[in-house]
Amino acid sequence: MDISSKYFSKLQQPGFYSLKHGYAFLLDIYRVGKAVEAFSFVLWELMHQLRFFQLSRRYVKFTGMVGLLEATETDLLGGLKPIRLGIDNQKMNCELVTIDWKYCFWDTDSVLWGCRFSSLTVLCRSDDGSQSATAVYDFQQPIKSIFINRCNVLFVCTTGALYKSHDHGVSFRQVLQLSTSISYFLFNNGMSELPDQTLVLGEYGSLWRDKTWRNLAFLYISTDGGNTWKMSDFLIQQGVNKHVHLLRYSKLLKALLLTDGDNKKQLWLNKSLTCLDKKSNQITDGWHLVNKYHHQMGGYTSMAETEKEVLLGSDYLAGTNFIVSTTDGKRFDKRVLPDPYRRSPVMNMITRKSVSGNEIWACSYSCLSAQARSLLMYSKDGGKSWTRVIEFDGTRHKVRLVSTSHEPTKDLYISVTEFGDQEEKHQHQIYRISEKH
Question: For the chain, how many structural domains are there in total?
Fold first, then answer.
């Protein structure tokens, strides 16, 4: 049960009606074990309303420009098109491309691999990224995520299974069965490779059964290039009740970062890159718990880094959301997304290479209310200030970062979706952000 989604609109209504649903809301919070998280929500709300974040200058800082979505008659697909993108310099292009990428991953040879909205079960490759794509392999099931290691070995995750290719996509074999048929790992955030080529994967999925969540919080570790995998349930032993959000290696911190959801929302750090299947009370081996209490924050769903800092995006749907930065994995600078974006979780982050240095692109998204605005933005100074590229209503549209790579690239792909009354009637447009020559 998604408590935030169930009650958000009802609790906006005044009077007895709102009180009635507020009482039911509190009962549900107690029943599903989210009382501690609810306390943090209330604490952050009070700090916002009492202007504590403003007085302590803890809000995310925006530049003055903001881009919007607007219907245009000249749009190639007849739907919505980003205009006045909030890009405040003349060194960046934003162009509509013909390939409708849903997810795509650059290998080390600059070949783009991915799946398309128009063919969700088919893995494609493209040498130019925007004009043509060749169908390579049909999995017969929707592709949920893609990962490519530094040796250009392809891994494709469909619902419940992970596949590996030894021959650049000509053939695939299943190498891992996840714990349920609906499980997968989060694109760009849920699978990573360590310097010694060890692969790690965090299972994700939401399955409500018998008045509780089915626990999917498993880690998988491979030391032989992804041929065989060891399952670890150490998170479940620590009381995590739902799934893994983030499992990413940081070159800056020389550490593996792990975050979990739903009730605990913790941040774990493994600096030794050993004992990947157990908790440790010391930072020298195993997983070290960074936040002991919920209000200290964790459960991040997104991560990106520059040469100087690691940025993390929070996952507090209908609550207060943050962008958090650290340079050492010990001290964390927490910045609040201001209204009207405050209640939208930061779902994904990407680092883009530019002539002036690496940029961080981030996308926040909430589908609960038109008042909880969603936002695509980027920062040229490591998160100190942000440019709002597209502000949008998450009940009508969705904007996503759809491309990733091991090293920052000059090109970045975003998708813009206009919702129809049914999923097959959604309209998708893909744009490439690139350097202007």
Answer: 1
